[in-house]
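Collaborator request log, item 7. Partner lab (contact: R.S.) asked for a structural prediction of NADH-quinone oxidoreductase subunit K to inform their binding assays.
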Amino acid sequence: MHLAYPAVLAVLLFCTGLYGVLARRNAILVLMSVELMLNAVNLNLVAFDVWLRDALHSGQALTLFTIAIAAAEIGIGLAIVLAVYRNRGSSDIDRLRDTAETDEAETVPDGDDSDDGDDGDGTATASGTGTEDQATASAGKAKKAEATP
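Returned to partner:
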């Protein structure tokens, strides 16, 4: 068997997977593309094992380890994607860049300057000590905890 045929097929599989990882925006399609890349590596391992006529068949043994790692990766990856989809409503990778959770009660609207503790003459008053902010934040966290199932 010529080594060129499986090597060319592995290169095509790997390039297809690489394109899928770089161009796709859906997390499940990205995981499928990673699987294509791992299968290209497996094909190379088996092809070189056959070509070298290794008595220990180390290429095939490494392929079994790679398949086991790929199965674990896809299981954990799908669990993460499903959890993100339940929380966010989308598995779009562009929307997942902002993964930090923000508490709506802790954020102050841009035009609200009433409780900033400034009299307007540059001196701070005692009303801006932050105790109201802490009470609002804890009430917001309690409300958020009640809302989550």
